[in-house]
Write a structure and sequence with these properties.
The protein is α+β, with helices and mostly antiparallel strands. The protein has one domain. It has 7 helices and 10 strands. The protein has helices at about 1-10, 15-20, 25-30, 90-95, 150-160, 185-190, 200-205; strands at about 65-75, 80-85, 100-105, 115-125, 135-145, 165-180, 205-220, 230-235, 240-245, 250. Strands 1, 2, 3, 4, 5, 6, 7, 8, 9 and 10 form a 10-stranded mixed β-sheet that branches. The longest helix is centred in the last third of the chain and has 10 residues, at about 185-190. The termini are far apart.
């Protein structure tokens, strides 16, 4: 197990031959919850603020900013060589609701919370503004950023400086997909490859981890996310709203 942990310390550098050789141990490591050691998460669902076009952020006080951010983009191979499949987070966001925490830099202490989660939802987004001729399946996090929680992060959102996010999660179902390997893996690859956003990167890499089920316990504002398609979509202060792109295909 120490060998696997050592290998996974630099997951973004995990080459094809090493991944293939240790795929069984790596999958076991992920599914037993050792891939992340950030906490147990939260299981109690709390009442959500009404979420329609007018009241999606509720009543915003002077010290609050309403934000819509992409927590993760499905079907994109990230720097950990993961491709999160469509709807892999559905059970988790249904179970946890607005108890999924809004943090910064994956720090899971109370003092590192930056806002209050309203809800997380699936949304289709046109990715042309981000350089891809695809419709992306995004997990959108709707929340209030609260100044008293962290004034520095509050000011960065207010100045439209935060443009990357990253989820804290546990792997529940995944498999190693070898583009030249076993027939079962190749069948899955053939069935989804038209939906993979950065297909050229996948083909060049020779493999990826197809992640079909995850459990999310937090979303963080970060400087650089492992999935780069995680921007801020909208910021609202008082009755003023700023949309970064007119790229919403379906709410």
């Amino acid at each position: 197990m120490e060998q696997i942990e050592k290998i996974l310390k630099n997951r973004h550098k995990l080459d094809y031959s090493t991944a293939k050789e240790h795929k069984t141990e790596i999958i076991k490591h992920y599914k037993e919850g050792r891939a992340l050691k950030q906490g147990d998460g939260f299981n109690i669902r709390l009442p959500c603020v009404k979420n329609d076009k007018t009241f999606k952020f509720g009543d915003l006080r002077e010290n609050e900013i309403g934000v819509e951010v992409v927590a993760n983009m499905a079907m994109f191979m990230d720097s950990d060589n993961d491709v999160l499949l469509k709807n892999c987070w559905n059970d988790s966001i249904k179970l946890r609701g607005n108890t999924i925490k809004f943090q910064h830099d994956h720090k899971t202490q109370v003092i590192n919370t930056i806002g209050d989660t309203i809800k997380l939802e699936n949304r289709l987004i046109d990715l042309k503004p981000y350089g891809y001729d695809k419709i992306g399946n995004a997990l959108v996090h709707i929340a209030k950023v609260v100044k008293e929680y962290n004034s520095a992060v509050f000011e960065q959102y207010k100045r439209k400086q935060i443009q990357q996010h990253s989820i804290g999660m546990f792997y529940e179902e995944l498999e190693f997909i070898d583009l030249e390997g076993d027939e079962e893996g190749k069948k899955l690859y053939e069935s989804i490859k038209s939906d993979i956003i950065n297909l050229e990167d996948v083909q060049k890499n020779g493999y990826f981890w197809a992640v079909s089920k995850i459990d999310i316990f937090e979303n963080s504002a970060v400087l650089f996310g492992v999935n780069k398609l995680t921007p801020t979509l909208e910021i609202q202060t008082g009755n003023k709203s700023f949309n970064f792109f007119s790229n919403i295909v379906q709410a």
